[in-house]
Every structure is written in structure tokens, then in C-alpha cells.
Design brief:
By secondary structure, the protein is mostly beta strands. It contains 3 helices and 18 strands.
Length: 268
């Protein structure tokens, strides 16, 4: 049974969030989608929602097939690119989620609206911009992407920029001009855990992978692609489980044309 709080759809503004400084530097990590289309799996979740832990575990299981589960290197992205976006609209109902950001609640509203629906809820999955209403029954079916040539290609390189940041360069090319597109960059962190002390999950220890800690976008990109160069702050780590994700989305339809995941960028 899905757990929901009704919300109105809103427009997502361009937001850039900085995270805490990081002591160690990172080794460069690189990924290239090639001509294979990846499935971007977005999970909107919250530590304040008692229905969310099973969905979090499902994302972690899916993520075991992703590039984030492997050490970084000169690797091609695997088919599944997972993102856990913690929303903030549960924060006033007993427990404040330490990973929640208002930008993720706003993005969820935007994707709901783009899918011609009205209600945001948790847990809530989207695959390549398409809403999955029944994730227990329909998620696997939505993961099957077209076997033909991908509509776009992404290459990403992340390298140290001082002690607490990564310089991220993303190159995109689109097979056919789709009109204006939007590029997003996310820094994710895995092997996180929380001891929840209040709210619906009070007393539970919750584990998380692929949690988005830093979000940049939307960045406007021409319909044929382009290059983006950004310096991104990196979250403070306990175990160095940081990865960089980039994806290209059509703002008119919410379709994600391509996504790429570097895998874990190990401290250098």
C-alpha cells in the first residue's frame, strides 16, 4: 500500500546545493554510455515514511547491477542508474530526514505533473521520467528499455578540484535534434545509515545507497547536445562511497534520453 501526502504540482527552478567540505581528494573517474540506453531509476523516499524502507531496499538491490556498485574506472555505464531522492514534506511529521532537500520535493511535483497526474507520494518510482504507480508489480517491466540505438550518448569525467570538490565534465550528443534539452548532474553517496528516533520509523536503523547529496540542474542544452563543465562540492564521507550521475531529459515530456553513472570515485 503506498503511503501518500497530497501535494500540488509546481515548477522546478534551477537550484544548486553545496554540501559539507571533504578532507580527502578523489581519484578521477570516467564513464561512457556508448550507444546503449540506460534506465534512470528515481526513487522519491523519506525516513519519515513507514512504507519507504522496502522501496529503499528494492533500489539498493537494483543498484547492485549498476555502475555505482563497481569501482570507478574507464567503464561503460550499466543499464540501471539509481537515484534516491529524499523529499522534505515528511520532515514536519515527527522526524526530520537528514538527507532531504526541498529541490527533490519540487522535482517530484514536476515529474508528476509532466506525467499528467496530480499527487506526489512516497515511495514513488520513476524510470526514465515515466511514473511507476505500482512499484511492487510494475517496476521490473518498466526497466526494459528499447534495444535499438540510444537516442543520446553521455560521457562524464570527474576529477579532484582541491580538497573538497570534483570538477565534472559532461559531453552529450543526440542522434536527432529533439529541441531544447536539460542536463542534470548529481553526486550520490552510498553505505549511509540512520538511527531513527521519532516518527513512523522510530527505533529503526535504516540503510541507504545512491542517496543524492548534491544536485545541479536543470542546465539548458541544445537539441543536438553539448558540453558542460562544473565544479561540484562533495559531501563529507565516512567510507568514500561517492559517485557522479549525469542524465539528459526532455523538459516537454520528462523523457530521460540517456543516463550515466561513474561508479564509486575512490579517495585518492
Amino acid at each position: 500500500m503506498k503511503h501518500q501526502i497530497k501535494r500540488s504540482a509546481t515548477t522546478l527552478a534551477t537550484l544548486i546545493f553545496a554540501a559539507a567540505p571533504l578532507a580527502p581528494a578523489f581519484a578521477a573517474c570516467v564513464a561512457d554510455t556508448g550507444n546503449t540506453r540506460a534506465a534512470l531509476v528515481e526513487l522519491y523516499t523519506s525516513e519519515g515514511c513507514s512504507s519507504c524502507p522496502p522501496a529503499d531496499k528494492a533500489l539498493m538491490k537494483l543498484g547492485g547491477k549498476s555502475a555505482s556498485a563497481a569501482p570507478a574506472g574507464n567503464i561503460a555505464a550499466t543499464r540501471i542508474v539509481p537515484l534516491a531522492l529524499h523529499v522534505d514534506y515528511w520532515d514536519s511529521i515527527g522526524w526530520k530526514d537528514p538527507f532531504a532537500q526541498p529541490a527533490f520535493s519540487q522535482r517530484q511535483d514536476w515529474e508528476v505533473h509532466a506525467n499528467r497526474h496530480r499527487t506526489s507520494f512516497t515511495p514513488h518510482f520513476f524510470v526514465n521520467g515515466r511514473e511507476v504507480q505500482d512499484w511492487r508489480g510494475d517496476l521490473d517491466d518498466n526497466l526494459h528499455v528499447d534495444k535499438g540505438a540510444a537516442p543520446a550518448r553521455l560521457q562524464v569525467r570527474a576529477e579532484p578540484q582541491g580538497a573538497n570538490a570534483l570538477r565534472v565534465v559532461v559531453d552529450s550528443s543526440v542522434a536527432a535534434n529533439r529541441g531544447p534539452l536539460q542536463l542534470f548532474i548529481a553526486v550520490t553517496e552510498s553505505k549511509l545509515s540512520s538511527q531513527v528516533k521519532a516518527g513512523e520509523n522510530s527505533g529503526a536503523k535504516l540503510d541507504h545507497d545512491f542517496v543524492v547529496r548534491n544536485w545541479i540542474g536543470p542546465i539548458d542544452v541544445q537539441g543536438t547536445g553539448g558540453s558542460v563543465d562544473r565544479v561540484v562540492n562533495v559531501p563529507q564521507l565516512a567510507r568514500g562511497q561517492v559517485a557522479v550521475v549525469a542524465f539528459l531529459q526532455d523538459p516537454k515530456t520528462a523523457e530521460v534520453l540517456q543516463a550515466v553513472d561513474t561508479g564509486v570515485c575512490k579517495p585518492g
